[in-house]
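Fold it.
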Amino acid sequence: MTHGTTSPSGLDRLHTAMAARVDKGELPGILTLVATGDAVHVDAIGVNAFGTEESIRRQTPFRIASMTKPILAAATMMLVDDGTLRLDEPAERWLPELANRQVLKHIEGPLHDTVPVHRAITLEDVLTFRMGYGMLTEPTFDPPFPVVNRANELQLVLGPPDPRTPYSPDEWIKHFGSLPLMYQPGERWQYNVGSLVLGVLLARAAGQSLEELFRTRVFDPLGMQKTGFWLPAPLTQQLPSYYMTNFGTGRLEVRDVSTPAEWSAPPAFPSGAAGLLSTVDDFLRFARLLLNKGVHNGQRLLSEQSVELMTTNHLTPEQVGNAGPILGGRGWGFGVAVATAPDSEWPVPGRYGWSGGYGTTWFNDPHRGIIGMAMTQVSDFLWNGGLTEFEKLVAAV
């Protein structure tokens, strides 16, 4: 198959499979996008919420959650490109709260049982999620270890984005800096927290809020007019309802978090990990920026080297193996997972992208020039086979 072409029969199969999931009641609705070259195919199926007749539309905004992370990484590399930041510099240059860290002797041990940090946390450590602190997945997600309990007591919200942390960025990093690290910098890959820290660091380095930085360096240059940490109420009222299975009852339930009202005013803490709303067409502009190696409409916004660094695996095989189910054996670049080995659907490695925990996903395949995106607001889509089926069917278009 050549770049810029898709198979009508392949797109038909994708529509049939996603529509079947809506018909079975797994999802009230879903929006899919497949782009190759200038050809863009968008398919809107179903409604915004069970029991309503308000259709999912191409213009519908979605909570993109962790799909915020690649945008954060791109903004970081823009500051690296212009010399404001260096990958090898200590994060404490901008975040003195992270100087002179102590590290737990044992991950499950008391907070005072620590050793000094071997070296400073670098910007690259934060970008690659090897800063020494992040979500724990063993023996369960966020096990009740003292360090996890203390973070919860402090209302830092280091894992799922809701409920939101009440702190300003400066207050948040001060409280976070009171915790010991879980591991030595550079030792292990741990999810999510690096993006929260990085958002605070970027705002200080740029001398503007994270929202302003995103707007001036990413959203305005790309024309992403319906992407932000908040949007006007007429837009947030169009947000689909958010659902996830109640594992106690086994039933899919609407969740009373992340309400339209919450998204219609600026947050106290703009989360670089999961804080954005966006639309498929807005995110397509960002995806194309990376696929085009940093160029948008003839204008270079990111250096080709920065895009290469973002979309190349930086983890050792051991770190990939210890990363747990979140990475699923893939590598990690800056803000994106990277396929490091071929599989039956994608025989050439290098595909990269990421998903959002509220039911959104995106990937670029630079080898074939394909962009794939699926937007729902049902978390189960990511683990009930929907995501895997979507990726396989896009590979066949």
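The radius of gyration is 20 Å.
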